[in-house]
User: What shape does this take?
Amino acid sequence: MATRHMTFQEALETIESLPEDQQENLIDIVPRRLLAQRREQLASTISEAKNVYAQGAAKSGTVKDLMGEIAE
Assistant: This one.
């Protein structure tokens, strides 16, 4: 069964159909969930970096070295 995704406009209309207290709850909940997602992404990035470092695949150098690599 195919899943139909809600458009942004449909989401807004759905939110507007909620009682005012539930709309206010959304104002509190959404930023917290976004923050939690960012934390998970950061934790994943850190874990990946630690693995690269542990495998000896991490490079070290100066900012000048990095800028030189970027320019290549």
Observations:
- The chain has a mean pLDDT of 94.
